[in-house]
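Check these lines:
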Amino acid sequence: MKIPVTGFVMDSGGDDAHHSHKLYITSWNGIPVHVHAFSGETTVNDGHSHEYSSWTAPAPSGVPHVHGYRTVTSLNQGHTHLIQGTTGPAIDLPGGGHYHLFEGYTTINGRHPHSHAYSGRTGNEVSSM
């Protein structure tokens, strides 16, 4: 089964062999896609917390859906943690649009190995960047 996807690729501008590109998907199977901003602060574990901020993966607009998300926390006490998961389903906003709840635990890291809990809600939907 083939699903038509449209979008564009942005070159990072790097000259080395390990440079990267970002793929921006604008439609999935003919349906426009959107993303959400998300950010927050983890719980305090091992005497500190971490901040995080990023965008969800794109998902189709106007249909029941969830979003994947993945980001790296701020550098605190010499280490970071990875945050990744899948949001809950869309929750309608009274004035239009919607948001998603998310929660989970970071990867284990640090001089004294530990993880942090995190949870929050995304911002309103934004057309795919």
Observations:
- The chain has a mean pLDDT of 87.
- The two ends are 27 Å apart (CA to CA).
- The chain has one domain: 33-127.
